[in-house]
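stage 2 :: seqdesign
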């Protein structure tokens, strides 16, 4: 009987506890806690993925004027190299073939195989001339899209393609134009293209451009694991 009475007493206490109406202070405390959690989550989400500005304003001159003028100068120099290279393609191919053949004789350990001399000499000059046009054709849309679409990613891709172009120019100068019977100004023109591409890239990295472009959306690992 005693145990049954105690069980009935505990059941009554549970019913009373479940039926108890929370006080206004308790409800306010719960609302404040939920609001704090929501605000913190929204703040973290906004920092991870900043909202795009509807009107970023007028693009800065270093991006829409200076960088483009320098790029157009580099493009003209590159096209001069392409036109001259294709006009003198036979001569350049013969010069490269002679150089490769001499390398086979003088340093066979580090030179290409004798049977590959003709194929390499016939492949690299036109390939490198075409790549000049391809790289320029990729760069300009990225440069203009940086301003028209207010895109930091386009700017970064532009810089990447420019860097690839800069790495190719010294190799191209050596394989295409550094021969006694090639017009000596072609080496100068190629290095002018190099310098103008560097100038164009630096213009897109200037402080006004970085301030105008949207904030970087790089992932922040510390915020990913924040509870």
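stage 2 :: out
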């Amino acid at each position: 009987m005693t145990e049954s009475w105690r069980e009935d007493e505990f059941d009554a206490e549970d019913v009373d506890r479940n039926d108890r109406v929370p006080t206004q202070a308790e409800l306010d405390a719960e609302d404040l806690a939920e609001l704090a959690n929501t605000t913190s989550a929204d703040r973290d989400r906004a920092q991870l993925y900043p909202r795009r500005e509807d009107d970023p304003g007028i693009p800065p001159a270093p991006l829409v004027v200076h960088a483009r003028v320098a790029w157009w100068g580099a493009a003209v120099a590159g096209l001069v190299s392409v036109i001259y290279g294709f006009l003198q393609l036979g001569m350049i191919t013969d010069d490269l073939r002679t150089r490769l053949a001499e390398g086979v004789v003088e340093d066979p350990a580090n030179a290409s195989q004798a049977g590959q001399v003709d194929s390499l000499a016939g492949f690299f000059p036109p390939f490198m001339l075409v790549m000049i046009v391809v790289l320029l054709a990729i760069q300009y849309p990225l440069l203009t899209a940086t301003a028209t679409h207010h895109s930091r990613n386009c700017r970064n891709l532009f810089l990447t393609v420019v860097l690839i172009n800069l790495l190719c120019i010294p190799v191209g100068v050596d394989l295409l134009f550094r021969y006694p019977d090639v017009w000596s100004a072609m080496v100068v023109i190629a290095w002018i293209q190099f310098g103008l591409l560097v100038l164009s890239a630096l213009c897109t990295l200037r402080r006004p451009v970085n301030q105008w472009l949207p904030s970087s959306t790089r992932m922040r690992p510390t915020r990913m694991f924040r509870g």
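stage 3 :: structure notes
- Residues 2-48 form one domain.
- The chain has a mean pLDDT of 82.
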